[in-house]
Known about the structure:
The chain is mainly α. 67% of the residues lie in helices and 0% in strands.
Amino acid sequence: MVEFINEAVKIETVQIKIPWSNIPPDITHVIIYLIAHEAHHRGQIVLVARALGHRLPEKVTDGLWQWKKRHHEVQVANKKRS
Length: 82
């Protein structure tokens, strides 16, 4: 990997094969794919909770997309542990 990066720095453009062959390799499609993939996993969290008989409160499901707030909560919790 280090050799690849060192070689990439020497040339102006890097051509790599995207491992997901079903999407075009431009940035717009990649970002859209990543957001959709993330949404899929968040949906799985809700689905598993429901399947186990634990319907998540609306406050929790609404908060699944609020990463900035979740990050802040983790930082505060880590400071309290220290």
